[in-house]
Amino acid sequence: MLFLSERDVERILTMKEVIEAIEEGFKSLAKGKVALPLRTRIRSLEHDGDILSMPCLVEDFNLYTNKIVSVYPKNVDLGLQTIHAVIVAVDAVKGVPIGVIEAGYLTALRTGGISGVATKYLSREDSKTLAVIGCGYQARTQVMAIKEVRKIGKVYAYDIIFEKAVKFAEEMKSRLNIEVEVVNSAREAVERADIIVTATTSKTPVVKREWIKLGTHINAIGAYTPDMREIDTETIIDAKVVVDLKEAALSEAGDIITPIKEGRYSEDRIYAELGEIVSGVKLGRTSSEEITVFKSVGLALQDNAATHALLKKYLNQF
Length: 318
Ligand SMILES: NC(=O)c1ccc[n+]([C@@H]2O[C@H](COP(=O)([O-])OP(=O)(O)OC[C@H]3O[C@@H](n4cnc5c(N)ncnc54)[C@H](O)[C@@H]3O)[C@@H](O)[C@H]2O)c1
Fold this sequence. Notes:
The chain is an alpha/beta fold. 37% of the residues lie in helices and 24% in strands. Strand 9 (154-158), helix 5 and strand 10 form a beta-alpha-beta unit. Nicotinamide-adenine-dinucleotide (NAD) is lined by residues 71, 76, 82-83, 107, 111, 133-139, 159-161, 164, 199-202, 206, 221-222, 224, 296-298.
């Protein structure tokens, strides 16, 4: 059986390949050819961590995957990554296990990848500036993905811990050859941005409607539980909101659940799921003035698609 390490994934898989595979995966989902149960979350109250089990079968890829992923926010204080993950891949034709993949980096790639797909369909084609709020591990692959689909000339970076934004800026300049300015508030970044990424662990909004220009696109990827939140209610009300999957957003995304609980938003106002847009059932952006929000909590489908791209490339080498 195959074992692919974090390093193998980094060496083999590109962001472009992941974006393409995720788009294909969402087309399959729209055709009803994906089995995607809601993930199971087990919480360690003693250690303030979540461990999730994320199964998915994509018929078009002949691939079953199950990812075990842990999210331990306090790891930051220990100098460890917040997220660790491993994927088991099974050939869905014969049910034979293919391999095990260390998947921390793959998770970041696929989280960036879905933002890449959403940005391609929802942001203005002339978008040039990007605000990154929360400069942790995921933020890096968000920039990689958005740069893949739009000509970004400048990134404005903000983190509640200033040093993290500085480190992020240095890394992005040297790895992606992109200009990054560290700013002192989320507002400064948001006001100058055509595209915004929120990738924090915040429980209160980090982006406010009054700061956002018309025509901006937002990828909100940080909040994945009902009590987490990055986007304020006013933005959700004013924007064209697209989610990865309605069922998942309504059970996990505080950014959507809180405005509904406040009685100021309702499920039927969510414009679309990403699958409806990539398969052409609904249009993406339709004017240069609209504010669009893509809310993703992270689906096992993204892991499956990225694993498919990885295995296809790796196995074809031999
Ligand atoms: N949607 C998805 O598919 C998906 C996938 C992976 C991770 N996530 C989530 O994304 C979030 C970020 O993950 P990560 O691995 O990058 O974590 P991380 O801990 O490496 O980075 C989070 C960063 O946000 C900063 N931050 C926290 N609160 C902030 C605030 N109020 N304003 C500005 N910055 C703030 C922290 O200082 C840190 O630098 C987590 O909540 C994680 O669970 C979502």
